[in-house]
Amino acid sequence: MTMPQRPAIAVLTPNILTGLGLKAILEKVIPMADVELYADFDSFAEAGPERFYHYFVAAELCPAHAAFFRAQRHKAILLTNGEPGPALEGMHAIDVRTSEERLVHDLLRMHHGAHPHDHGPLPEAPAAPARTAAAPLTDRETEVLTLLARGLINKQIAEELHIGLTTVITHRRNIMEKLRVRSLAELILRAVAAGYVDAGRL
């Protein structure tokens, strides 16, 4: 019996650092997909574009191949440095100058149905064994985690929950210790994976 082929995602950018960084984040957000890097359109075309669920493509590569990417707009996501130019308007775009947290938000939203495509939704990853937390999150910690994952800053969380700023900071530190994460981006991923936050509501 043959194993089902893993879905593939292409990253097209001449900037190797951008490509490697995005590949690492995509592998965390969508662990069931293989992420392949291409420095130019020709090597991407030789690899067979039809097999990819998504193409993350540097905006500077698009003008020379605009007809192809416009025809594949359901799969193409532009990697921009700000707003895409008028020739590329109407295409999905991600600003690569954004924070890792914002990028993870955008990718999770896209992965969980906000970006339809021909292949249907990417298959969900098999549930990974949960890392044992020091203790389960309290109800208040769960509320703080949900608001952190939605992008609120400490001060906004304090106002939303009618608690002090130092209390929010303490809850945040405790949550990160319990979930054994070091960054907000990792915290968002763990919150979604553990079911604390619905990615569609990020």
Q: What's the CATH H-level homologous superfamily of the largest domain? A: Response regulator
- Tally of discrete structural domains: 2
Which overall shape is indicated by the principal axes computed on the Cα atoms? elongated
Mean pLDDT: 78
H/E order of the elements? EHEHEHEEHHHHH
Please report the number of helical segments: 8
Query: What can be said about the biggest beta sheet?
Result: 5 strands, parallel
What is the second-level CATH architecture of the largest domain?
3-Layer(aba) Sandwich
Total number of β-strand segments? 5
Radius of gyration: 19 Å
Structural class: alpha/beta
Strand order of the biggest β-sheet: 2-1-3-4-5
At the first level of CATH, the class of the largest domain is Alpha Beta
Structural summary, described in words:
The protein has two domains: 8-114, Response regulator (Rossmann fold, 3-Layer(aba) Sandwich); 139-201, Winged helix-like DNA-binding domain superfamily/Winged helix DNA-binding domain (Arc Repressor Mutant, subunit A, Orthogonal Bundle). It is α/β, with parallel strands linked by helices. The model is unreliable at 114-134 (pLDDT under 50). It is 42% helix and 13% strand.
